[in-house]
Amino acid sequence: MEKTFFDGRYVYVNTLGQGGMGTVYLVKNRQLGNLWAIKAVDKQAAGGVDFLAEPNILKKLSHPALPRIVDIGEDQRYLYIVEDFIDGYSLDVQMNLVHRFPESQVVHWAKQLCEVLAYLHSQKPSPVIYRDMKPANLIVDSNNRIKLIDFGIAREYKANSTQDTSYVGTRGYAAPEQYGVGQTDERTDIYSLGVTLYHLLTGLSPNEPPYQVQPLRQVDPKLSEGMEHIVAKCTQPDPAKRYQSVAELHMDLKHYKRLGRAYKRFRRVRAIKRIAKSLLVAASCLCIVYGVRLIRADRQQAFTAAIDSGYRMIEEFRYEDAMELFQQAIKQNGSNSAGHLGVSNVLIKQGEYQRCISYLKDNASLFSGDSAAGLNRNLGYCYMELDDTGNAVFYMEKAVELDGSNVEWLTDLAVCYALQKEYDKALDVIQDIDSENPAVDFIKGQVLLSQGERGEARQLLRLTAAQSEDDSLRMRAYTTLASSYDTQGTELRQRIAVLEQARRELPEYGDFQIVEMLGESYHLDGQPESAAQMFQLLLDRGYNRAYIYRNLAIIRQEQGDLQEARRILEQMRAQFETDYTCYMQLAYLQLEIENQKAQNKRDFGAVWEYYQLAVGYSPQGEATPELLPLKNMMDELREKNWL
After folding, report:
1. Of 404, 349, 407, which Cα lies nearest the Cα of 378?
2. How many Å apart are CA 195 and CA 86, to the nearest integer?
3. Residue 476: what are its φ and ψ, rounded to 5°?
4. Is 79 helix (H, G, I), strand (E, B) or coil?
5. In 145-161, which positions are buried (b, 16+ CB within 10 angstroms) versus exposed (e)?
6. Which pairs count as long-range contacts for 43-49, CB under 8 Å and 24+ apart, including other chains?
7. Contact present, 80 and 38 (Cβ < 8 Å)
8. Which of 115, 458, 467, 481 has the fewest CB neighbours in a 10 Å radius?
């Protein structure tokens, strides 16, 4: 006989877990067929704990990391709570298999937990204190997203209370104040999160010897100083010495690698250098007339403000405004390379790689010292985007020689080595990067991809996209992953899926490469309207490229909207007057227009004029490969006396 719940609405499928106060079942909705979890709470075993606490709290909340309550019922013995079924694995079960998790993975989960705790703590009028953070209450779904379950002992914080009314929690994970020392608040959850991170990183349960949280690096010297600092601060017995909010903790987690002694030493040295330079400048200024000094200070202030504003415009994807500000800075002080470097960064963002190379080489004499590193990096990056790996390696090596601490530049250099099939050199670069940095997986993925090992490479690229905090690196991981798929059949569909995921997860990043690749892929997949939307989006955002206009015009022509195709090509012509492909496409368009007319009304004179313009502007005249099909059509028209 089948086991059912709620008058037969839910059918028993499996038992998910069992504890001291009840059992959790996996059930199926008989009518809809979807899966749910039913928590059966034994009211007799609940003791002094309010068994309605969980539904009463969860019914007020809505967050992706929290299960929803959809139904409640009871009989004489049990309270039944119907919640979302989370298809994933609990971290305590997984730890039995792997013992502990990589630091980068734990940090990734910790940041998600900070987000959900911040949501709970921000509830009005009373913050919700979770009070039971531990691996057993954390489930990771198939998208590597963390879910927080079991709100059985959560409570609402009361500002006028001095202590909790009941002392509950899981021994070892619970903060001291959960046992009568004081009232639990946001810092209580921070303590439990710190202990949980310690357990996940070391594999040592706080319920087992030595029954305490030791300094992380005493357990494993390979763990970072930053995480050791974070865990130690979270688990201070005195709440006043812990992080005072999860926002503060989240900030340190985002920059945990910067909390180590080596980074702090680097910052101190850099600060000392800056102070020394400032002192030298200050000393020299003593010799200058006071009025002149004020004028120069005003000019320098205006110059710096323009540079800062320019980079802010880049972050907001307002590239034309950024270019104007950098050019304004150059007018203020044309001998300072900062303005010129800013211009080159705008050109890179706009995909103007060849123009950027010419600009930097024209102004190379202005770059020296630290700025020379930026010059060489941008030159190397442009050559890499143009598939000139020889020059890319040359300039990237120079950049890294001048500044070997920049992980992004080291990654670029390693990628160039991989593209040149110099795999040993690419892997050597990894030695200069922290082993926990997702850039390491990205480089390994590039090497494997270059070696033809696409399966393993894709796994590493997906891992990079999932774990990196650097949106630039994530974007590169996604575009490289998408490029690893062929442009036909099921591979094309997988390419599109990767690019669509990138757009969902990096909606504000603003890099045009993803949108452009997606437009091209949609077109290849026979989705013309979706492709047109992507190309139009590029134009709307100021990504004015001749081939984007032409792609959009071709789609409209294929759809039969010849008038719209002409309008787009005329826009292209206005901006790219000497681009032969514009006239080539106008010739094809006019040819189709004439062929739709009755024979006695056809006039191919305009087609011939467009063809002549295309030939005149093309690099090899009539011998230009792209023009040969059109040349054959012109020959055919002459043979038939249409011209």
Report:
1. 349
2. 24
3. -65, -35
4. strand
5. bbbbbbbbbbbebeeee
6. 43/74, 43/77, 43/78, 43/79, 44/77, 45/20, 45/21, 46/21, 48/166, 49/21, 49/152, 49/153, 49/166, 49/168
7. yes
8. 115
Task: Choose which CATH entry (3.60.15.10, 1.10.10.10, 1.10.510.10, 2.60.200.20) describes domain 89-254.
Answer: 1.10.510.10
Other Cβ atoms within 10 Å of 346 Cβ, number: 23
- Decide: 397 and 413 in contact? Cβ < 8 Å: yes
**Which residue stretches of 223-352 are H helix?**
225-234, 246-254, 261-285, 290-315, 319-332, 337-349
pLDDT class for 159, splitting at 50, 70, 90? very low
Q: 35: which strand partners?
A: 28
CATH code at 547-643: 1.25.40
Residues of the chain with CATH 1.25.40: 547-643
Q: For residue 441, which of 418, 471, 462, 424 has the smallest C-alpha distance?
A: 462
285-301: per-residue pLDDT in tens? 544 444 444 445 566 77
Sign for the pseudo-dihedral over CA of 465, 468, 472, 476: negative
Closest CA to 531 of 476, 485, 481, 492: 492
pLDDT in tens, 306-344: 888 888 887 777 788 889 999 998 988 888 899 999 999
Q: Which of 298, 310, 372, 307 lies closest to 338, judged by CA?
A: 307
3-class SS string, 138-187: EEEECCCCEEECCCCCCEECCCCCCCCCCCCCCCCCCCHHHHCCCCCCHH
Task: Indicate left, alpha or beta for 169 from its phi (over 0: left) and psi (-120 to 50: alpha).
Answer: left
Fold of the CATH domain 4-85? Phosphorylase Kinase; domain 1 (3.30.200)
Inter-axis angle of helices 471-483 and 438-450, nearest 10? 20
pTM for the model: 0.51
Rounded-to-integer distance, Cα 561 and Cα 554, Å: 10
Token pair in block for residue 418: 């991989």
